[in-house]
TrEMBL record:
Species this protein is from: Ciccaba nigrolineata
Protein's gene: Mob3b
Keyword Zinc in annotation: yes
UniProt name for this protein: MOB3B kinase
Coiled coil: none
Single GO term (MF): kinase activity
Amino acid sequence: LKQVFNKDKTFRPKRKFEPGTQRFELHKRAQASLNSGVDLKAAVQLPSGEDQNDWVAVHVVDFFNRINLIYGTICEFCTERTCPVMSGGPKYEYRWQDDMKYKKPTALPAPQYMNLLMDWIEVQINNENIFPTSVGKCEEE
């Protein structure tokens, strides 16, 4: 277990919503509906009276947390030697570009690609201009 929670690995602890906030309440509602065996289409439908941006943000963060858990279970089996290419089957190869270190699409081993991707997503989720955590702090459209 010590290896799973190593901060230098791709696995990251879940992002949490502060108890008492609107996002925390929306997260609890989303979890309850997803765990109840309800139709998924109905489960992700915007509840009456809720802000669409908050509802989407809750699901994006939840999806990110779930992907982290899944990747955390397989990352030790996918090394630079065993997964030298980030691919989606034999026809698709994913290349990394971030306009900073990688200015052009660059082929990377799958673990390196996934680490960069998860770091990038985490930066986006933590960006208050994209995912504000306080009510009324949304970026104006």
